[in-house]
UniProtKB/TrEMBL annotation, chain B:
Cofactors required: [4Fe-4S] cluster
Pfam families from the UniProt entry: Oxidored_q6
Keyword annotations: 4Fe-4S, Iron, Iron-sulfur, Metal-binding, NAD
Species for this entry: Thermococcus litoralis (strain ATCC 51850 / DSM 5473 / JCM 8560 / NS-C)
Record-given protein name: Mbh10 NADH dehydrogenase subunit
Family assignment from sequence similarity: Belongs to the complex I 20 kDa subunit family.
PANTHER family named among the record's database cross-references: FORMATE HYDROGENLYASE SUBUNIT 7-RELATED, HYDROGENASE-4 COMPONENT I
Domain of life: Archaea
Claim: Iron-sulfur is one of the keywords in the record: yes
């Protein structure tokens, strides 16, 4: 039984693949074993170097999705200030707004201002 | 002076300048430039304490810099040595006992080699580095002994 799959662009053999996997694992282990054994976990040694400054929390250095729109929101902050104040997240509030605005439009259309 | 036997790799140095007037720093640069060219012995300045064997400190260390210097020292892998370059770092120099100075450096982190001078000559700095190299060899042997 042949384990070799021959294709027009080359061949694939799982045994050969496993041999290489074992070989590279040995090489990786040899490199790992030559590492500094005095390495101390849970100390400053594992933290990135930031010119001696303490490492900020991940939340503080993370670029949030909202940061992408920062310039846009900053430029229109007068508009967004009002909009965010009425954006309660409560569906009943939005239905009230819908009905209120609908009533005004209806009044304008039917009332014949 | 002892022979270098154990530490069989290039010595990498990190330079932290804390409140220095720049004179010591310029002499450190002179050590690296073609007149002395310490890099031909593998002694080179690196950009991160996490890569360094030796911490080279200049300046009298202002209070705001003391915690940063401690952090830099702690980030270095073992074995490590600290070399103080110049009078300000060694004793406080003309800034001794100033209200805003946390130094001399040995009051902030442990120091292995002092290179006094205002500023010290490049030859003195190289001599200090070699002494630090010998200290690291000693520390490395101790570390190897602990592992066995």
């Amino acid at each position: 039984m042949s384990f070799t799959l021959t294709t027009p662009s080359g061949f694939w053999n799982p045994i050969l693949w496993l041999v290489f996997l074992a070989l590279f694992s040995i090489i990786a282990y040899l490199i790992y074993s030559r590492g500094n054994p005095s390495y101390k976990k849970d100390t400053e040694q594992i933290k990135p170097y930031l010119s001696g400054n303490p490492e900020p929390t991940k939340e503080k250095v993370q670029v949030k999705a909202g940061d992408i729109y920062w310039g846009f929101i900053e430029a229109l902050k007068g508009y967004y200030k009002v909009l965010q104040a009425i954006h309660t997240g409560d569906m009943r509030d939005y239905i009230l707004w819908y009905l209120g605005i609908g009533a005004i439009i209806t009044f304008i259309l039917i009332g014949g201002v | 002076m002892g022979k270098l036997t154990n530490f069989k790799r290039s010595l990498w140095v990190f330079h932290a300048s804390g409140g220095s007037c720049n004179a010591c720093d310029i002499e450190i640069v002179a050590v690296l430039t073609p007149r002395y060219d310490a890099e031909r012995f593998g002694i080179k300045l690196v950009g991160s304490p996490r890569h360094a064997d030796v911490l080279l400190v200049t300046g009298a260390i202002p209070r705001d810099f003391a915690d940063k210097l401690r952090r830099i020292y702690e980030q270095m892998p073992d074995p490590k040595a600290v070399v103080v370059i110049g009078n300000c770092g060694t004793t406080g120099g003309v800034f001794y006992d100033s209200y805003n100075i946390a130094g001399p450096i040995d009051e902030v982190i442990p120091v292995d080699v002092y290179v006094p001078g205002c500023p010290p000559r490049p030859e003195a700095i190289i001599d200090g580095i070699v002494k630090a190299w010998l200290k690291i060899e000693k520390l490395e042997k101790e570390l190897e002994g602990k592992e066995k």
